Amino acid sequence: MHVEKISSLQNPRVKRLVRLRDRGPRDEMGVFLVEGFRAISRAMERGVPLTEVYFCRDWFLGGNEDALVARASEAGAEVVELGRDAFAKVAYRDRPEGLLAVVAQWRHEPGDLKLGEQPFLLVVEAIEKPGNLGTLLRGADAAGVDAVIVCDPVTDLFNPNVVRSSTGVLFSMPVALGTTAEVTGFLRQRGIRSVATTPRGSCLHTEADLRGPLALVMGSEQFGLSEKWLAAADVQVRIPMAGQADSLNVAMAAIVTLFEAVRQRSPSPGAPVAP
Amino acid sequence: MHVEKISSLQNPRVKRLVRLRDRGPRDEMGVFLVEGFRAISRAMERGVPLTEVYFCRDWFLGGNEDALVARASEAGAEVVELGRDAFAKVAYRDRPEGLLAVVAQWRHEPGDLKLGEQPFLLVVEAIEKPGNLGTLLRGADAAGVDAVIVCDPVTDLFNPNVVRSSTGVLFSMPVALGTTAEVTGFLRQRGIRSVATTPRGSCLHTEADLRGPLALVMGSEQFGLSEKWLAAADVQVRIPMAGQADSLNVAMAAIVTLFEAVRQRSPSPGAPVAP
User: Fold this and answer.
1) Do B241 and A142 touch (CB under 8 A)?
2) Taking CB atoms and an 8 Å limit, are B247 and A142 in contact across chains?
3) Cα–Cα distance between B148 and A33 in angstroms, integer?
4) Which of A171, A263, A264 to substitute to test the interface with B, most B CBs within 10 Å?
5) Does the beta-carbon distance from B167 to A259 stay under 8 Å?
6) Could you read off the pLDDT tens digit of each residue along chain B, which spans 275 residues?
7) Which of B208, B267, B272 is closest, CB to CB, to A272?
8) Closest residue in A to B165 (Cα–Cα)
9) B160 belongs to a structural domain
């Protein structure tokens, strides 16, 4: 393969990669960054096309990076070699691994989702911290959710910390975006029950029926679910809290509710228990 | 109150505070650092005695910090004012809030724990990341665990990131330390069943009986539970994993199992479900 090499920190490509750390340029150019061996491998495994791949052997950790770069090139990515300092400048991680890819953004609406008879969805509203959004995606993946709907996004899906903290789930989990009105309308139209988790819930998450077509709905870290969502939800549930009020963050609360749904939806939902 | 003021970055106290970020000096001096308004408030609310409190009004966020410093002084803490640069040097957080306390370490053994008839314990083995240990403490608090036992510690309990990520639970949750042999011996002697969570578990976590005297046991991020623990545990359970193998980290897996135990242990463990 033909490989261009860039050493200058002033090179326009280097400057463009640095700008892609910010949402504005990312959305304008319609692309985002994927850094490191594991994340790039996972994107490729899931058939996500890489537009460009930047590498620097000085930073390689010795995990067969050259083979990965060659595979990316074969799959159609433009491959560019960077000098040590240039790579350090474009890397957003503390410990660069010498691999950075540019990937085209995607955007789906709820109506684009291909869902079966008994959809199992996670809806998250206005999540602020990229790390939480990534962890929510992981939790949804672990629980076998069919799709995640991000409602009234605050953090964008392609923030480097979402990419990192989702540990590759971003590349495999169907994710749709929409406003609260769009998403509540979609769920109603499809006959999908919405179960909102809120400290004000009238019953415990274990007392609600979480089988059948289901959307679990989680609110933002700071404000919880909006009044609109609370009014629109078919059921409001709460997780019993033994400790201080903030001991369960949104990602932990989601995983508790998701796995209670997994239990109820399984053919053998566990040994019957009596006090 | 009499308040000494320090501006020099070379002051021995300033240098000592910086050294306390590392475990060696921390263990040698038998103290640790608590930074920020919320963490220090929580320590005081829980009656944890502060030895020294350092403050710098230049960094205050305007949340009644002076009153907190006065209360700490009344409660017996030595109060020292720092100059702007000196405080920036001792602060370990990215955004200093102008408040840093020195607190004496504590150490309990499993035998020190005061437990009732039906203890509900979380045992964690060799956790490596301070953030995970703090999150595990939060999860244990949320689930109403009586105590956490940290087995063969890798991360020390008083690492600044454990303090921060535990959001104050470190100050209220009884935590004991011990070796695997000590902890397994303790559980056996007290008649507490140990339930280990491992991908190799022979039944699902929802199929095991998690009522009665119970210790849930979680292994390290990288290696899971040691062979010793797997051999010693009364039951091995696994969480059903729908997605990629690493979508549940140790803290998320713990919270799923902890809240299944909460469900089973509650007087009304939820609506009966049938497929």
Assistant:
1) yes
2) yes
3) 40
4) A263
5) no
6) 678 899 999 999 999 999 999 999 999 999 999 999 999 999 999 999 999 999 999 999 988 999 999 999 999 999 999 999 999 999 988 889 999 999 999 999 999 999 999 999 999 999 999 999 999 999 999 999 999 999 999 999 999 999 999 999 999 999 999 999 999 999 999 999 999 999 999 999 999 999 999 999 999 988 999 999 999 999 999 999 999 888 899 999 999 999 999 999 998 776 555 44
7) B272
8) A247
9) yes
Residue B252 CB neighbours (<10 A): 25
Instruction: Tell me the whole-structure pTM to 2 decimals.
Output: 0.93
A254 neighbourhood in chain B, CB within 8 Å: none
| A53 in reach of chain B (CB within 8 A) | no
Q: Are residues A85 and A160 in the same domain?
A: no
Kindly report the CATH number assigned to the domain that includes residue B13: 3.30.1330.30
A125 and A246 belong to one structural domain: yes
Q: Say if residue A63 is in the same domain as residue A198.
A: no
Q: Which of A42, A72, A104 is the endpoint of a domain?
A: A104
Encode chain B in three state secondary structure: CCCEEECCCCCHHHHHHHHCCCHHHHHHHCEEEEECHHHHHHHHHCCCCEEEEEECHHHCCCCCHHHHHHHHHHCCCEEEEECHHHHHHHCCCCCCCCEEEEEECCCCCHHHCCCCCCCEEEEEECCCCHHHHHHHHHHHHHHCCCEEEEECCCCCCCCHHHHHHCCCHHHCCCEEEECHHHHHHHHHHHCCEEEEECCCCCEECCCCCCCCCEEEEECECCCECCHHHHHHCCEEEECCCCCCCCCCCHHHHHHHHHHHHHHHHCCCCCCCCCC
Do A118 and A239 share a structural domain? yes
List CB contacts (< 8 A) between A135 and chain B: 252
Q: Is the residue at B147 inside a domain?
A: yes
> Which residues form the domain of A213?
110-265
In a domain, A134, yes or no: yes
A-proximal residues of B, 128-157, CB under 8 Å? 135, 138-145
Q: Which of A45, A73, A104 is the last residue of a domain?
A: A104
Check whether residue B213 and residue B244 sit in a common domain: yes
Residues A259 and A206 in one domain: yes
Domain for residue A248, yes or no? yes
Cα A249 from chain centroid (whole Å): 17
Total domains in chain B come to 2
Q: Give ∠ CA B140-A146-A159 in degrees, rounded to 5.
A: 70
Residues A64 and A127 in one domain: no
CATH of the domain at B205: 3.40.1280.10
Do A218 and A237 reside in the same domain of the chain? Answer: yes
